[in-house]
Amino acid sequence: MAWRIGRKKKKDMPTGIWSKCSECGSTIYNKELVASSMVCPNCGFHHTVGGRQRIEMTVDPGSFIEHFTDLRPEDRLNFVDKVSYAEKLEKAQAKTGNSDACIAGVAKIQEHEVVLSILDFAFMGGSMGEVVGEKIARAIELAEEKKCPVIIFSASGGARMHEGAISLMQLAKTCAALNRFKEKGGFSISVMTNPTTGGVTASFASACDILIGEPGALIGFAGPRVIQNTIRQELPEGFQRAEFLLEKGQLDLIVPREEMREKLSTLLDYSAHGNRVRA
Amino acid sequence: MASQKKKKSAETSNILPFEKPLEEVRSRLEELEALAGKTSQDLGEELEFYRDRLNRLTKEVYSDITPWNRVQVARHPDRPLVSDFIDHCCENWVELHGDGSFADDRAIVTGLATLGTQRVLLVGHRKGRDTKGRMACNFGSAHPEGYRKALQKMRLAEHMGLPIVCLINTPGAYPGVAAEERGQARAIAENIRDMFALKVPVVAVILGEGGSGGALGIAVADRVGMMENSWYSVISPEGCASILWHSADGREKAAEALQLTSEPLLRLGIVDKAITEPSGGAHRDPEGALEELKEQILFWLDELLALPPEQLLEERHLKFRNMTRSISVLETAMNPAQTGHEEPLPDPFSASERRAASLEPTQEPDSEA
Description:
The structure holds 2 protein chains of 2 kinds.
Chain A: H1 2-10, E1 18-20, E2 27-29, H2 30-35, H3 51-58, E3 65-67, H4 85-96, E4 102-109, E5 112-119, H5 130-146, E6 150-156, H6 164-183, E7 188-196, H7 198-201, E8 210-213, H8 224-231, H9 242-247, E9 253-254, H10 260-273
Parallel strand pairs in A: 5-6, 6-7, 7-8, 8-9
Antiparallel strand pairs in A: 1-2, 3-4, 4-5
Helix pairs in contact in A: 5-6
Chain B: H1 2-12, H2 20-38, H3 44-63, H4 67-74, H5 82-89, E1 91-95, E2 108-115, E3 118-125, H6 131-136, H7 144-160, E4 164-170, H8 177-181, H9 184-195, E5 202-211, H10 212-216, E6 223-227, E7 231-233, H11 237-244, H12 250-258, H13 262-267, E8 273-275, H14 286-305, H15 309-321, H16 327-334, H17 351-359
Parallel strand pairs in B: 3-4, 4-5, 5-6, 5-7, 6-8
Antiparallel strand pairs in B: 1-2, 2-3
Helix pairs in contact in B: 2-3, 5-14, 7-9, 11-12
C-alpha cells in the first residue's frame, strides 16, 4: 500500500491523533493544530482551512447567514475520465456536506456587515465550475444591493476542467460582477490562501480592490509542476509563495491568520467611515 | 525540377493523418492538371471526375472528423494567422508596440487598421510562421506585458472612439518563472474585468486555438465568433490528458470530453457564430477564409456601432453574466425568495464539533488523486 503513504504526505488536514507538517516535517498533536487555526505550531506554516472553520475563525460568532444554498452543480458535458463527473460531485457533496466548493453569505466582522464568500479546498480542490462562479457573482451582487463590502477567501486549484468552456466562462462572469460593483463604488477584498492557482487567481481573486495573501501560501497562474515541465530548470527559492509575490509587487499585504480578523476590520473601517476618524 | 520536388515534400509534411485519403486524389488531380497543360489531348472529362471526387471526399472526411482532428486543423502550419489577416484584410496598418512600462511582447500584436471603410484597433495573438518567428512569439503564448499592452491599447481605442477587433490564437498564456513574477494571473484578471468597461464595440473571434485564460484575456466581447475548425476551452487537450489520463492517446479522449469545438459551444451560447471555412479547412484556401472572417467582423461592427454606449455595456455585462446558466441555476435566479435565510440559522453543532466536521472528509481516501 505504498500509494497510501504517498498520499498521506499530501494531506493538509490532520487525520487521527497526530499529523505531520508538510512544510517542516514535525509531528503535531491534531487538537493543537486545530486550536491554532491549522497553523503549524513549530514552523508557522498556514495549512489549508476548511470552509466552515474559516467562517468561524473570521466572523463575529453566530453572525453568518448562508445564502444561495439551493444552487446545485450539474454534469452538463457528461464528462467521464476514470469516473464520471456526476459521481465525483456526489462524493464531494457527501464528503463536505456542501453542494459545491463555494460557501457564501452575509456576516459581521467586528460589527461591520460584509458579504463573505469562501472557496472550500476540500470540495474537488476548490475548483470553479458554473455554481461556484454563480455564487461568487451573486455574492458580489448581494454586497452591491446591501451596500456593504465583499470579502472573498480563495483556496483553489483553478477552473474545473470537468465543465470545459463553461468553467472558463466563470472567469468572465465573476469579473463582470466585480466590474459593475467597482463602478458603483463597492469595496472588495480578496484573501488568497494556500493554494490559489489557475483560473481563480486569473479572475476574481486578483480583480478585487485589495489583495491579501496568507503567509507561505502558494499563489500563481500556472502550477509549479507545469512551469517546471516547460522550462526544465529548478524553480527559484520561495517561488510563487505569498512573500515572493509581495516582493514582486503582486500583493498589497500579507496577513497572518491570527491577525486576519483584526486587519480585515481595520480595512473595513477605512471603507466605511471615509478619511476622518470620528471622535 | 529539384525545387519543385522540395516544395512537394514540404507540402506533404503538412498533411494531417486524417487528410491522407484526400491527398491521394488531390495529387492525382494535380498530375492530371500538369499533364493537361502540356498535351493537346482533351482531359476535360477526367479532370471533372477527379475534381468532383475530391469535393465529395473532402465533404465526407470533414463531415465526421473528431474533435481531436479539429484541434489538428486549428494548429495546421498553413492555417491563416493574425499576421495574414493584417496582410490580406487590413489597410493603413500601423503597429503600436509595448505596454508602456515593461516591454513589447511579440506574442500579442496591437495596432490601428482599416477594414474596408471601417477603422479599428486590432489586437491578436501572434504565432509566427517559421521556427524563428514562432520562437520570437513564444508560439502565441503571451506574458503579462502582452495582456497589459492589449489593455493599454484598448483604452487608447476607447479614447479615440475606435471599435476593437480581437483575434485569438493561443495554446494558453505562457507558464514560466518570469510570467509569474510579473503577475500573469493578475494581468489576465484585470483584462477580463476591465474589458467590461470599454465604451466602444468589441468583437472577438477564435482564429485557431482558444486556450483558457490566455484566450479569454482578450476575448470579453459584444460578439464572440469562432472559425469552424478552431477550438476554445478551459485547458488544452494535452493539459487535460496529462492530468486525467497520463497516456499518449489521452489527448484524443480529452478533446472529446472537453467539448471544445464550435457545435457544443454554440449550443451553450459561449460563441455567437461559427464562421464557415472553405471546404477542406482554412489551410486549403487561407484567403477565402480570411475574406469570410472579415465580412463577419464588419457585419457585427455595423450592428454594434448603431448602439449607444450604455446599451453596449449593459448587453456585454448581461451576455457574460447570464452565459451558460443551467436550468436549475436559472430557476433559483428567478425565484429569489429561495435564496438566503431570513434569520441566522440555529447553530446545530458546538464549535469543536464543527471543527471536527470540517476535518472529517480528509479521513476518506481522496477521490481526486
